[in-house]
Amino acid sequence: MQFGLSPEQTLLQDSIGNFLRERAPLERVRRFADGHEDRAHDLMAGLAELGLPGLLIAEQHGGVGLGPLEACLVAEVLGRHVAPLAFSASVAMVPTALRLAGSAAQQSEWLPQIAAGQLTVGAALSERSGARAGAGVVCSQGRLSGRALHVIDFNADAYLVADAAERLYLLPADAPGLRRIALETVDRSRAIGELVFDGASAALLPGSDARVCAQVLALGRAVLAADTLGAAQAMLDQALAYAGQRQQFGRVIASFQAVKHLCADMAAALEPCRAFVWYTGHALAEPLPDAELLACQLKAHLSEVGQQLAKTATEVHGGMGFTDLLGLHYWFKRIAMNRQLLGSPEYLRLQAARLQGLAA
User: Fold this and answer.
1) Which residues, 6 or more positions from 300, have their beta carbon under 8 angstroms from its beta carbon?
2) Domain range spanning residue 339?
3) 340, 219: one domain
4) In terms of domains, do 39 and 173 share one?
5) Residue 277, domain CATH
6) 276-329 pLDDT, tens digit each
7) Of 115, 144, 179, which residue constitutes the final position of a domain?
8) Which terminus in the chain has less CB density within 10 A, N or C?
9) CA-to-CA distance for 74 and 20, rounded, in angstroms?
10) CB of 231 within 8 A of CB of 82?
11) Does residue 182 contact residue 191 with C-beta atoms inside 8 Å?
12) 91 plus 148 within the same structural domain
């Protein structure tokens, strides 16, 4: 029985990590955040050569044909490098929705373009993770009306939208009756926005229902949790490096017992989360009966661990941790945004209780 990553999975992480280390250093992320670029075209073009856009797409449609575990592994690397890329929706959630519920014609039309990196698709499923006042989408005779908030991978060519009945639809970004509103969030490494529908024509994924919607959401939650894992690991690594070179009273601060305890507590809290991510990815790939439950528990747990670790890692840096020079805030804010997307910890624990029959 294999309890660790395979050589191929390790190589996948290393390949993506080496690319981002070279092409997306912190200065590149800072330029993206400050320059209000729609997309990091150069990064996506390079990653398309590595097959990233087609990660979860079958080979017959031009993809790589890997699974949810590999998507989580890649998301961890993206979070570690706070990469300004469309991934959670366009690479993970949308291809999964098409595979589970799309017609043969829809799969043949959409999947090859996504796999080739020619098409980015956002996901408007946030209303399925907690209703908000004045928000929600309904469909009547193939036309969507309403409002979808916190759309993931917002700067896209098309969108996957869930209606109030948990059916899934696809429509292009320039569809008549669709208005797009970019939202300014704390996390400027990724694009989040709002969609307003006024009778916009959309194509139903014929196999979509509440079960499929739940599976797509579960994968999205697992991927976001893995992104948080990577971002938290990056903050821990930076805190350890800083403590090892910052001197106070003639000694590096890493030699002080209080700082040692802070770093040890962070490492001890984070390390079990990696196995949790791996197992959830495995459960989604099989799929196991408790896969959706695990995804809820994983994201809720990592949201809490990530938040506390981000706070502690910043404290280890002292006043320097709050400056833009070190850029810790990019990881801090990414963790904060991941915490809220597709369900807060409180909502996800309630959802987990419902799945176990412990709450109405």
Assistant:
1) 345, 348, 349, 352
2) 210-355
3) yes
4) no
5) 1.20.140.10
6) 999 999 999 999 999 999 999 999 999 999 999 999 999 999 989 988 888 999
7) 115
8) N
9) 11
10) yes
11) yes
12) no
Identify the burial level of 101 via C-beta atoms within 10 angstroms of its C-beta, where 0-12 means exposed, 13-18 middle and 19 or more buried.
buried
210-245 helix and 94-101 helix, angle to the nearest 10 degrees: 160
Pairwise CA distance, residues 88 & 222, whole Å? 9
Q: Which two tokens stand for residue 120?
A: 């980015």
Q: Which residues contact 258 (CB under 8 A, 6 or more apart)?
A: none
Q: Span 37-57, mean pLDDT?
A: 86
Give the pLDDT confidence of 332-360 residue by residue, as tens digits. Answer: 999 999 999 999 999 999 999 999 999 88
Among residues 36, 249, 57, which one has the least CA distance to residue 154? 36
19, part of any domain: yes
Domain presence at residue 60: yes
Query: For the chain, what is the HEC assignment?
Result: CCCCCCHHHHHHHHHHHHHHHHHCCHHHHHHHHHHCCCCCHHHHHHHHHCCHHHCCCCHHHCCCCCCHHHHHHHHHHHHHCCCCCCCHHHHHHHHHHHHHHCCHHHHHHHHHHHHCCCCCEEEECHHHHCCCCCCEEEEECCEEEEEEEEEECCCCCEEEEECCCCCEEEEECCCCCEEEEEECCCCCCCCEEEEEEEEEECEECCCCCHHHHHHHHHHHHHHHHHHHHHHHHHHHHHHHHHHHHCEECCEEHHHCHHHHHHHHHHHHHHHHHHHHHHHHHHHHHCCCCCHHHHHHHHHHHHHHHHHHHHHHHHHHCHHHHHCCCCCHHHHHHHHHHHHHCCCCHHHHHHHHHHHCCCCC
Amino acid at 271: E
